[in-house]
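Provenance and format

Records in this collection were gathered into a single text stream. Each protein contributes a sequence line and a token line. The two records reproduced below are adjacent in the stream.
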Amino acid sequence: MNYGIHLKVSGDYALFSRPEMKVERVSYDVMTPSAARGILEAIYWKPQIRWIIDEIHVLNPIRFTNIRRNEIASKVSVKGAAGINAAMANPEIRPTMDVAENRQQRASLLLKDVAYLIKAHVLVLDLRLEKDDAPSPENEAVGKHLDMFKRRARKGQAFHQPYFGCREFPVRFELIENEADLPAPDASLLGEKDLGFMLHDIEFDQERSTKKVRSTTPHFFRASMSDGIIRIPELPFPAKA
């Protein structure tokens, strides 16, 4: 049984924001593991599993471009009499924002014409397929989740449109089922390249009963690319259901 998946993803633009660039957005050279996990979760996810990214294959040459975008400088309040929470309780309340007063223009350095191959496997955190199901053997549970992912990916189904870092940059995806059909990286990517420190993933500390997030801890790793392939180290924190 194949315990992993290969998913080819591509798009016209991508912006995987570097956290050290606070004012103007600047993208990493390639897709981060957390962004790859987000794409897989957009296609198929359950609380019982976690996607583990094994490799990211960079297929197209790394090219950057500059754009300027109009953005909103602030958000509608969540709390308060005119906030989102109040509007959800009372439909007559309409949260509003004056876009003209909150508009700002920001520059972004983003990636152009991107394509990647995501190699990943599923880690089962709870052997029950549904909350009330009896536990299954681990191999069987893994197989069921992978089968459901593959069915959805073949049909192009997703819980929400996957995107490359920003929702303006949608992802096209294609499931690669035979290793003989795996696309090869562009010839310009051959050789070794140090990509510097890159965001690996974010560790959330939550209260089990309320799921309220107590703290978030970003984890980084030293990324390097060999012949277009970035091998992702193991998660530096335990995955929890």
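Adjacent record:
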Amino acid sequence: MYQIIDKKRLNEAVELMVIHAPFVARKCEPGQFVILRVEEKGERIPLTIADYDRKKQTVTIIYQIVGYTTKLLSTKNIGESILDFVGPLGKPSELKKYKRVLGIGGGVGAAPLYPQIRKLKEMGVEVDVILGGRNKEFIILDREFETICDNVYYATDDGTKGTKGFVTDVLNRLLDEGGIYDEVIAIGPLIMMRAVVNITKPKNIPTAVSLNPIMIDGTGMCGGCRVTVGGETKFACVDGPDFDGFLVDFDECMRRQGIYKEEEHSCRIGLGGEHHA
């Protein structure tokens, strides 16, 4: 059993939870993830590691409350425990000591981006970040990024924080103003990552993306998380989740992501039997 050490509501749909998980905390690196199960007979869901503290033996996860299991997880409070917390899984991010890197985090994509940016800063890399969300309430970890980054830019759909528009609007502006980056790391919705690549690829700015396809066992055995990268079949759980954005077949990823939409809708059932859209 893995005890919940801390829990915070970041906005109406997103929560942060700190879990006491000594083995995971001892081994994990930026870019890796865990698979957890809240209770016996519960489903296994993958969640990216948002932070870790080796001394306190804790791992931080950030999740959007969208389905049955995340709703169930949300009912757990500080002092309670979850049943399984398996990891670290996946390959650590390949972070290079570039001169300057731009991170782009869309919505909860800021969570897996944070440990990568923090590690780069520790390596002496200059780091700028663009954070995006529907409105200012959906921008997460802004204070944490502001603490470690050279510059933090914001984009919101309604203009309540930073630029009114998308993260790609800010990216275009920074590049038009002469911004030079050795690499871009984009993490967020598939459509956002594809839009970023559509800008960076013609300019030949290496771009890493983090894929979060349908995943079941996290060991490469079930094949559920297969993606096409550079014309080859890869499994995000063992070959990723980070990939060269220039090589990812985003259209295929998006088609596969929608395969179980009807079933997902049926599973969005409240714990008390209430149906949610």
